[in-house]
Write a structure and sequence with these properties.
Blueprint lengths: L5 E5 L5 H10 L5 E5 L11 H17 L4 E4 L2 H14 L4 E3 L1 H11 L4 E6 L1 H6 L1 H9 L4 E6 L2 H7 L6 H15 L5 E5 L7 H8 L4 E4 H12 L11 E5 L3 H12 L6 E3 L9
Parallel strand pairs: 1-2, 1-3, 2-9, 3-4, 5-6, 5-7, 7-8, 9-10
Helix pairs in contact: 1-10, 2-3, 4-6, 4-10, 8-9
Bound molecules: D-glutamic acid (DGL).
């Protein structure tokens, strides 16, 4: 049978934290990744724009043969999961629901903090996914838009990141949360700093790890042989993507291609 890849898309390079988690879980699967580096960031954009971009990204991946679409970007998953699930001919999963499930299984006191981009926080996607699973949980949300730039700047352990993290996180820490959802692709990169600021008693939920676990339930290792191949596509700035990718993945990436936005993206 023809081997079809898992398709992952993100607004840019941050989704490689999701790629990394999926690659670990599925060593034999081929993966095709698209990072929309020409149009990043999605966080401050309107829902309609993010939906439009997400449709194009997913259709591009389907053209590459993807058998399932993973929306690695929290902002895109918040805005576009429903639409993509309706219109695409393959299954689609997003980071929100697995992150919500993991947060619920982690909390003891029923108080969950959620951090993400402005788009993700405004969409209320995490609180509504959590309240569908349990009505007794209290959620406290905080947008942390500067975290994206700090992670891309390579400042994950920088003093400035600690100051910014304290400023953002103090209000939700005061609510007595015991669990914090890292609801953005870039935040796992800042995990050490965030963990330092929130202290040991708060569990950090990494939505990248959570979605890799959910994917394992949907496609229980269909490929059991060979080394899975990776293909990366971006819409701009290959060099920057490759540089940050090497840092996130701990190795240089091969098969990186720049694709031009255009009509061929529409099926
Ligand atoms: N990938 C986005 C997310 O997870 C963060 C970067 C952006 O704003 O595009 O929400």
């Amino acid at each position: 049978m023809e081997k079809r890849p898992i398709g992952i898309f993100d607004s840019g390079v941050g989704g490689l934290t999701v790629f990394r988690a999926i690659r670990e879980q599925f060593p034999h699967e081929d993966i095709v990744y698209f990072g929309d580096t020409a149009r990043v960031p999605y966080g401050p954009k309107s829902q309609n724009t993010v939906i439009e971009y997400s449709i194009q990204n997913a259709r591009f991946l389907i053209q590459q043969g993807a058998k399932i679409i993973v929306i690695a970007c929290n902002t895109a998953a918040s805005a576009a999961l429903q639409t993509l699930s309706k219109i695409l001919p393959v299954p689609v999963i997003g980071v929100i629901e697995p992150g919500a499930i993991k947060a619920l299984s982690s909390t003891q006191n029923g108080k969950i903090g959620i951090i993400g981009t402005n788009g993700t926080i405004q969409s209320q996607a995490y609180p509504s996914a959590i309240s569908k699973l349990s009505s007794s949980i209290q959620t406290y949300s905080q947008a942390c838009p500067l975290f994206v730039s700090l992670a891309e700047e390579g400042w994950e352990n920088h003093e400035v990141s600690k100051i910014v993290a304290k400023e953002y996180l103090q209000p939700i820490l005061e609510k007595g949360i015991d669990t914090l959802v890292l609801g953005c692709t870039h935040y796992p990169i800042l995990k050490k700093t965030i963990s330092h600021v929130v202290g040991k008693n708060i569990n950090l939920v990494d939505s990248a790890e959570a979605i890799a676990e959910q994917l394992a339930e949907i496609i229980p290792n269909t490929e059991t042989e060979g080394i899975g191949k990776d293909k990366f596509y971006v819409s701009d700035n290959e060099e920057k993507f490759a540089r940050i990718a090497a840092k996130i993945l701990g190795q240089n990436i091969t098969h990186l291609t720049k694709v031009k936005l255009g009509e061929s993206w529409y099926l």
